[in-house]
């Protein structure tokens, strides 16, 4: 059975750490949490991850690759077994294990060797950084081992691979306890895309808002909700009165689409 680990994207966008209570505990800080790269076939890409041991005691870390997929709620599922069509055989890591003194920082290298003749698209994988020994947490007097693990996501666009995002129409969804406008978006391209742009709108009371589109990744073939989070100059978390009208421009890469939607 493949080893799987589910983490929310929010956790992955932060440097994760688990405090060490026993020898060999895990208290790592990793930067950056994500790489978005480009390469041509028959090309090699070199990159560096900065890894810090935030504990006062030495720590041994194991490092390896994993495939990943995204859940409907934008969680990430890592899979240690090779997925069909995985590009992980292209990846070379500096070494499988590193020993860090307390408070030390290293620059850890990896590379991706893209074979010749690869079709345009995207290579995606995770680099897993985990404690060689579990940390121990106390819960009501019970000492519980915790397996610390951090996943760094790598998106490598090959050749002319690119997203092609199609906006289907308006929806209203729950987000952080609020009902917010959203757009269903399909990626018909060969690489992941993220929405950005500048949108404005008005609710039923005539109040004007700026709307920020969520920039979660939309993988090829996926249909996802892009949340439009409202704000005003005096309130970052206003409550909308529906119906709401939103207009403006959504962008991804060098592409854009105009939005003029009515949300009930």
Q: Whole-number radius of gyration?
A: 21 Å
How would you name the CATH homologous superfamily of the largest domain?
Immunoglobulins
CATH topology of the largest domain: Immunoglobulin-like
Helix content: under 10%
Tell me about the largest β-sheet: 7 strands, mixed
Distance between the termini: 46 Å
The helix count comes to 1
Which strand-content bin applies to the residues? over 45%
Along the chain, the helix and strand elements come as: EHEEEEEEEEEEEEEEEEEEE
What average pLDDT do the residues reach?
88
Overall domain count: 2
Quick one: overall form?
globular
The strand count comes to 20
Structural class: mainly beta
Which architecture of the largest domain does the CATH hierarchy give at level 2? Sandwich
Ranges with pLDDT <50 over ≥5 residues? 1-24
CATH class of the largest domain: Mainly Beta
